[in-house]
Write a structure and sequence with these properties.
Layout (H helix, E strand, L loop, with lengths): L6 H9 L2 E3 L5 E6 L8 H14 L5 E2 L5 E7 L3 H10 L15 E2 L12 H12 L10 E3 L6 H4 L4 E7 L6 E7 L11 E2 L9 H15 L6 H8 L1 H9 L1
Parallel strand pairs: 5-6, 6-7
Antiparallel strand pairs: 1-2, 2-4, 3-4, 7-8, 8-9
Length: 235
């Protein structure tokens, strides 16, 4: 077997952000950003690790994490040790709440909310929470990201109420990419900013309670029905 590891050992490593490559003896290690941001000093340290233990390349992922490929099996412990010393975070896998992503609404002229602040608050509270399956969260700043909001298990998107011009928030449920892609469905109810963390907690708790092992939120919604799911979350 590739890398002389069992399927269970590979799964365990992947959950920790250490991914076996198809090239024998090599692994890719995933480093977590803070909702899409690395500090400049962190980028320098990551580049140094890539030069020292990898092939000098860094790869960005769709969830705004960074991966260093071509780490030899015998160097994994050294990379982990040095990463801890430099306060770099390795992880982002397994049946958990994954790394939270955010668009650049905090600095974009179209942004209706501070996406970075909100995403950090959500990640600090929910990241790594063990669930029946993977759970992905996105925070977006305006309707230009409507399509992106449809690709996560849970997404938050601000919109302007045309009657009073106040900012309200749409919550999208049950999106996923991959082999069984499905667009998230926006809840009928809109929310205020101070309600968002509580809503995220309710959504995740509902998924945790009702999902079968390895069942994604999209499948839960298809099985139970979006009307009942939304009703239970609001209740």
């Amino acid at each position: 077997m590739s890398n002389n590891l069992t399927a269970e050992e590979k799964k365990s490593l992947k959950a920790k952000g250490i991914i076996a490559q198809k090239q024998d003896g090599y692994f890719t290690i995933r480093f977590l950003s803070k909702v899409g941001y690395f500090k400049s000093d962190e980028m320098i340290e990551l580049a140094n690790l890539s030069k020292k233990y990898g092939n000098g390349e860094l790869s960005l992922t769709s969830r705004l994490t960074l991966e260093i490929p071509y780490i030899k099996k015998e160097d994994i412990d050294n990379v982990i040790k040095e990463s801890k010393e430099k306060k770099l975070r390795i992880g982002g896998g397994g049946d958990t709440v994954r790394a939270v992503i955010a668009c650049k609404g905090s600095v974009c002229t179209h942004g209706l909310t501070d996406t970075n602040k909100l995403a950090i608050e959500i990640e600090d509270r929910f990241f790594g929470r063990i669930l029946p399956g993977k759970f992905k969260i996105g925070v977006f700043g305006c309707v230009n990201s409507y399509g992106k909001a449809q690709s996560n298990d849970l997404s938050i998107l601000p919109v302007r109420n045309l009657s009073n011009l106040e900012v309200e928030y749409k919550i999208f449920l049950g999106g996923r990419l991959g082999r069984q892609a499905r667009l998230a469905i926006p809840m009928e109810k809109r929310f205020k900013e101070n309600e968002l963390i509580e809503v995220v907690e309710k959504v995740i708790s509902y998924y945790e309670k009702n999902a079968r092992t390895k069942e994604r939120f999209a499948e839960v919604i298809d099985r139970i029905g979006i009307e009942e799911v939304e009703s239970e979350i609001i209740k």
